[in-house]
User: Fold CBM20 domain-containing protein from Paramecium primaurelia.
Amino acid sequence: MVKLIEFRIHFTTQFGKAIYLTGNSDILGNWNPNKAKRMNWSEGNIWKVDILLHNFEYKYFVADYDTPSNIIWEPGPNRVMFQNQTQNLKTLDFWNYREVQLYCNNPQNHQIYITGSSFGLTQFKQFKQMNQQNDQATFQFLINPCKEREIKFQCCLNNQEDLKTNIESVSIDNQNQYQYNIIQIKCNQLDVLLRKLEEEYNRHIEEQRKIEQEKIRQEEENKRRIEQEKIRQQYNNNTKKNLKQQEQTIKQHIQPITQQTQIQKQINKQPIKQQIQTLNQEIIQIDNNKNATNNQKQFQKHQYQQQLLTKLKDSGEVKEIPHVKQNIEVSNPEVALYVLKESLLRDQNRELVQTNTQYSFGFDSIIGAYGSDQSCLKVRNTNLDYDTIVNDNQLLEQQLLEFKQKLSISLNISIDQIEILGVSKGSFEISFQITGKNSDEIQQQIKNKPEAQKFLNEYCNGQVEYVAYFDNARTAGGNQAKNSTGVALSSDDFNPQFNMSWDNLPEKEQRGPPYHRYDYYFPRGCYGLGLKVKNYGNDDWIKMDGNANEWRILYHGTKNFAINQIVKNNLVPGGGQAYAGYQCQDEFGNTVPVGNGIYFSDKLSVCQGYTSPVQAGNKKFRVYFMSRVNPKKIRQSNEMKPINYFVVNNSQDVRPYRILIQEEK
Assistant:
């Protein structure tokens, strides 16, 4: 649609004279007075003319009414009109005058005052308040550019004498300062002052936060001390009958734990060479420990193995996976292993290593990691101190016995069914198993028993973790084992039957069940190495036939996560939760927060920011995970849609099934 803008100028002319409008466009005659537009006089000495809206520079001049002769040009710089900045289809100009707008960004909505050399700025006599709108402070006034070639001004923040800017001086001849026929000038000194105030405010907030954190820490420390004192008092007040029963139970069920903590303290005092020999001997002898159950043996063996691996690395008795020197292609599994090794080392300080036969853990350390005796439940009591408890065998025994008694009563099961496997730091963690029950049954039993919920809420805030401790065990000394997931990937974690590439496929195609159709963007330019997925049971989720149980394909970068955890233990929730508080729709149509979870994208180009290239020979490779996610559990706010971000809250709704290797060209 054609748009016209009405130009108006206030000017009193002599009889027989008229105002003309010309400019640098064909419509305005390209500065030729004979082709200029003569304006029409109206009441109040307002001259008007309608011009087709377009981009141009223009000026007014006075000349004879009938022909543009005896010309008197309007002084000052050319005026400017930009089509895309026009909001009002009428403009009113004043002869010899230009409108000036001083502005600055002010998202904090400070009260800003301004004064200056121009009459409209009070000639430095007083400060006037700037207008605030859309996170911006502005002040507009008229100047005569023939008399004022330069504008000086000064700003004051919140009307405070100590928050004044230096006096700025700006020329008005620059045509690029025009925006919709207004000369715009940014208050640079004010921007500097506002940034400085914002930095000071942030520093103040950070100091207050640290003070509050320290206050909370001291309060929690006092609570821990009181709780520990209560524990000692409760223990000393028990009847002799209970003490005798406890001693008998401790001897049968807890003795291996106290022995293991004592052994660990002795190991920590030894030189590194002797530690290696002791750890290796304990690993060999642990199967002969008649006091320990099979589950306790497996748990302790893994802890010793992880410590041994750390000591072997410290003493230089391990070998790295070598560089790939031949067949450096994306389809070569050795390239994939090397890229994974380098990614673990760089991003997570974890390594895949080789050692001699004497210290080898055996291939079952990887393949058997998720056997029935290779997992446990874990609770964490933040009110107890690990070091205090393990340095007092009596206190340690009391804590473990009390936990077994209260848990068995709350679940209405025999105390013998609760098997303590070990303790660790964080603040005080107990790893255990309930024999005869799987994790689903245990969770259901807790859900159905208010007494169990009450006890667990008091002891560990209701948090019971299911842990595959081959991937997550801590050292008996309480510290996180260095490289605790070392030697955790093997060729058996891959399934070559499902290796493939997508280079000859289109960009995308429609996938998914009828209730959740979506665009599947093929990972072109990548080679996919299949992963074993047999532990997922029914394979409807991975099919591509549109069945009702088919899960959606999404991609995930691995920079912030341990790759071996992803392969062995599914994806774990991430730390960067920028959109957790945003609103979205759940599978029932309810408005809910996005929440914490694992971030995905349906495009590899987005995930590329969460990987780093690895050099192999003269080539570079990146690694991604191709996953199926439960479409009912995908969370995406409106703000996430333009950037192709998706969140899945729980790792049980994520199933990685292929590693993607991408060569950088």
DSSP finds 13 helices and 36 strands in the chain.
